[in-house]
Amino acid sequence: MSYKYINKLPTPEEIKTLIPLSKALIEHKRIRDASVKAIFECKDDRLLVIIGPCSADDEKAVLEYTMKLAKVQERVKEKLILMPRVYTNKPRTTGEGYKGIMHQPDPSADPNISKGIQAVRQLHVKVMAESGLTAADEMLYPNNYPYLDDVLSYVAVGARSVENQQHRLMVSGMDVPAGMKNPTSGDLPVTINSIKAAQLPHTFIYNGHEVETTGNPLAHAMLRGAVNQYGRNIPNYHYEDLLYFSKIYLESKLQLPSLIVDTNHANSMKRFDEQPRIAMEVLRSMHHDDSIRRLVKGFLIESYLLDGRQDTQSEYGKSITDACLGWEKSEDLIYRIADSF
C-alpha cells in the first residue's frame, strides 16, 4: 500500500461540538441566508458581491478585512449584499504551493489537516460572530463540506471541479446558492450540464452514509473566463458573451437562471487591477439589455488589505496566492457598483 496513514481525522460532529454556533448565530444566519436566497429567487433586486482574499491565509488579517467590509455593508445595504470570500482550500494546477489553511493553518509550517479543520471552522464562526457577515467558501473537497454546512451562506465549485460527479451530487443536497464555474476550457455546455445535475435529486455516498437529495434549485453559473489550447486567457464577461450565455441558459429551462461574474482569473487575464473596469463594463451591459440584467445577480471579486501578491507572509494583509485588489480600491469599487446599479 502506498498510503501512509498519519492521523485519524475528527468527525464533523466532533468539530461542531468543539466549535459550536450559538443560538443567536444560528438565527442570524437563517435571516441572512433568506436574504441571499431571495436574490436568486428574483424576490430581491439587490446585487450580491462576494469579495475577499484569494486565500484566507491569516485569521487576523481576514477578520480585520471582514470588519471593514461590515462597515461598508451598512452604507450600501439598500443596493448590495456583501459577502466575505473566505476561501480556505486552494486548487493548485500542478499540486505545488500553498493549499489553504485546511492543509496548513500556519503557511510557514508543515501540513496539519487535523488542526486545519479546526482552524477553518473557527475562522468562519469568528467572521460571523465579529462582523455579522456570513461567508462564501470554495468546495474544493466534497468531504470537507460537513464541517461547514451550518456556517456557509454560499458555496463555489471551481473550474477544475465542476465536471466532477461528486461535486455535482454534493451541491444537489445543499440549501444555499452554489456557483458552478465554467471549466478552464470555457466549455459553456459543461457549465449548463453541471447546473442541471446539481438541480436534480440523487442517491449517493455522503459522510459515511447512503443519502438521497431533492436537488438544489439555487445552483447557478459563474463565468471566470477561459484558457485556450495555447495557454492564452480568454475573457467571457463582455456584452456579446453575456448575451449569448443568457440565450443558451434560458433555452436550457433550468430553474432560477442566475449568473455571478468573476472579475479576476482569466477574465482579468490575471491583472487584478482590471477588476473595477470589468465590473463597470458588466453593469453597463446590464443596463443595455434586460435579459442580461435579469440573469446577472452579482460579482466575485478578489480583494485583500494590500494590493498585489507575495510569495511568503512578509507583508501583513497581502495575498500569498493570486494577486488581489487592495482595500482602498476595493471600498471605492463597492461604492461605484452601488451607485451604478
Automatic annotation (TrEMBL):
Domain spans labelled DAHP synthetase I/KDSA: 38-332
Name listed for the protein in its UniProt record: Phospho-2-dehydro-3-deoxyheptonate aldolase
Enzyme class per UniProt: transferase
UniProt pathway annotation: Metabolic intermediate biosynthesis; chorismate biosynthesis; chorismate from D-erythrose 4-phosphate and phosphoenolpyruvate: step 1/7
Pfam families: DAHP_synth_1
InterPro entries in UniProt: Aldolase_TIM, DAHP1/KDSA, DAHP_synth_1
Catalysed reactions, as listed in the record: D-erythrose 4-phosphate + phosphoenolpyruvate + H2O = 7-phospho-2-dehydro-3-deoxy-D-arabino-heptonate + phosphate
Classification lineage: Bacteria, Bacillati, Bacillota, Clostridia, Eubacteriales
